[in-house]
Amino acid sequence: MLLPSGLVLDAAVLPPLDKMSITTLAVLVLCWVFGSRTPRPQPSYFLLIFPAVLVFCPILTSFTNSYELQTASASIPGFYPLTGLKFSGRHLLLLLPMYIGFRYLSTDDARAALLASIPTATLFYSIPMLFEIRMSPQLHRWVYGYFPHASFAQQMRDGGFRPVVFFSHGLALALFTAIALLAALILLRQRTRIFGLSAGLSATYLTALLLLCKSLGPVLYAVTLSPIILLTKPRFWVKIGCAASLFVCAYPILRSTGLSPTDLVTSVARSVSVDRSKSFETRLQNEEQLLSKAREKPLLGWGEWGRNRIYDEWTGQDISRTDGAWILQLGTFGWVGYIGLFGLMAAAEFAALKRTGKEITPANINRGGLALLLGVYIIDSIPNATDFSLIFLMAGAAASVPRPQRSDAVSTRLRNAGQTIKPVAGVGTT
Question: d(Cα 248, Cα 295) in Å, to the nearest integer?
Answer without folding.
Answer: 18
